Amino acid sequence: MTGHTPFSKLRAGLPPERQQRAAQKTAALRERMALHEVREARRLTQASLADTLGVDQSAVAKMEKRTDMYVGNLRRFVAAMGGELQIIARFPEGDVVIDNFAGLGEPADPAASTGAD
Length: 117
What we know:
GO terms for molecular function: DNA binding. The protein has seven helices and two strands, in the order ααααααββα.
């Protein structure tokens, strides 16, 4: 025996209340991730994401480090990882999905601008 105990065994020995608190904290951490953490969790490299976006790998690295970017750029970045960006405003009364940005980063629909069906 090496004297090491697997974490799963230690966790199983915790009282149920503590296990539940730990599970809640883990879930909360998974809800908040930086862009590079999301990319890594999806098992994507900067190079593969760059190919999808049609940019250089260095551009992906810069985007991941930015603290401020256009909503359209963020939407394209998330879409390239297979996701969909939603912007939610949180108020004491409840959450509101902001949909002004729904069409950003998508090609324009010529039929919509001419009124043709």
